[in-house]
Amino acid sequence: MMHQQVASSPLHSVEAEQQLLGALLNDNGLYDQISSMLTANHFYDPVHARIYKLAAARIEKDHLVSPVQMKSDFADDDGVKQLGGSTYFAKMSGAAIASFAIRDYADMIRNMYDKREMTNRLKQIGDEVAGGGEPDAAAAELELFLHEREDHSDEPRTMSFLKAQTQALQQMIDINNGEMVGVPTGIESLDEAMSLVPKRYTILGGATSMGKTALALSITMAAARAGYGVGFVSLEMPETDLANRMNSSISQIPYQAYDRMMSENQFRKVVDAANQLESLPLEIFSERVRDISAILSEGKKLQRKMKPNGQFKGFKLLVVDYIQLVRAKGESQHVRLAEVANALKQVAKQLDVHVLALAQIDRALGKEDNYHNARPRLADLRGSGDLENAPDNVMFVFRPEYYLTRQRPKNEDELGDWGHDLETWRDKAEIIIAKARMGERKTITVECDLATNVFRDVPDSQMDAGF
């Protein structure tokens, strides 16, 4: 009988893992039968996980995987030494099952992994509640877990082609009748290129001082005024600061002035703007809402509070400022950020909203000497490749004026061109659509007033003149 370091239980089977690995060592061609359903993470034994991970990587590169090869690769592995050393791979290979049963063992390993995940998550949620956690947050975390499991399940979930086509045709009819399918941004050229449709999500990236939050607030105000409910998760600034910035977009008083004494006329404009804001379907999430489960929990409450009624479309836009500040579990910032980036997709689906998540990009772009070289790309998103892969859309806000004002040339011969560029880009920005799953990749030039958080289309007269 093969060496077994841990007894099997309903939550794991060392023998099943050994049998599967032995069969794979004997016949690398079996990998195609299990590759889509099994990863190294599904193994209970960490040594087996390392063996499978290396074997899979080799097979995918058309390299041979055999007991002799693996013996050499794991010669210095302490875990393998504890299991019997160099003879462990030969024993696994010699005691392996017939090839026809490998999918059954893969199913068993995957099923036990699911059981462990569910058991651990339920225990974690139970411990959090017992430790004083909020029941609503615990329920939201459990709901998110079940939704993730459903998305990754192998069980078929189908819709007839007729039903899918009927829904698509109805959407086309709505568009032809002038109805918005997505949440309006207040920028017609942006709406034409990319639609903020519910159940999808968009990353809005930009370097410091490019105007990410200002653009998000401009979109927020446009959506709310058009009858779409908006929830704003502000992880970077206090709720009062955010309220002032929203107020300034209506009062047209620069928000920096809100911390100083105002004239009677200015204060009256602020009060009038506050009255207008009071009637808009806007909610700022508390600073305690800092992780995905809390965001989902509060979003569920807002969904119940903002029910569609007549011209009011209900809660349809959730803004997160910004994604790198959302708390998550994981051994590294990369892992935590990847978890958040993927979880926001589930939040969009469960709440039936469009999620607009702001993201920081590589700080090195802020040091570029030439603004042409500072335009961001997908690779500049900071922290995780999932920021590029998980969202349906990725767009960047970019202001050449920011760089030009800091790059006045010392050479007199270059002053003319520099001055022309500066005047051309004054109070303007680019919205760079770098990824659009159901839209158009393009760059849009818009007018912007960061002081009052307003972005709008460039007038046709200016477009004809060069934009």
Biggest sheet layout: 9 strands, mixed
Give the mean pLDDT: 82
Instruction: Note the run of SSEs as H and E.
Output: HHHHHHHHHHEHEHHEHEHEHEHHEEEH
Estimate the strand proportion.
Answer: 5-15%
Number of helices: 19
| CATH superfamily placement of the largest domain | P-loop containing nucleotide triphosphate hydrolases
What's the CATH C level of the largest domain?
A: Alpha Beta
Radius of gyration: 27 Å
Q: Look up the CATH topology of the largest domain.
A: Rossmann fold
Multimer state: single chain
Neighbour order of strands in the largest sheet: 3-2-4-5-1-6-7-8-9
Q: What is the molecular shape?
A: globular
Question: Can you put this structure into words, describing what you see?
Answer:
With 467 residues, the protein is of the alpha/beta class. The protein has two domains: 14-112, DNAb Helicase, Chain A, CATH 1.10.860.10; 183-464, Rossmann fold (3-Layer(aba) Sandwich). Helix content is 47%, strand content 12%. The chain has 19 helices and nine strands. It has helices at residues 14-26, 31-34, 46-60, 67-73, 78-82, 87-94, 102-130, 135-152, 161-176, 188-193, 212-225, 239-251, 264-278, 292-305, 333-351, 386-389, 400-404, 415-425, 460-464, and strands spanning 201-206, 229-234, 282-285, 315-321, 354-360, 393-398, 428-436, 442-449, 454-457. A hairpin with a 4-residue loop joins strand 8 (442-449) and strand 9 (454-457). Helix 7 (102-130) packs antiparallel against helix 8 and helix 12 crosses helix 13 (264-278). The model is unreliable at 1-7 and 153-157 (pLDDT under 50).
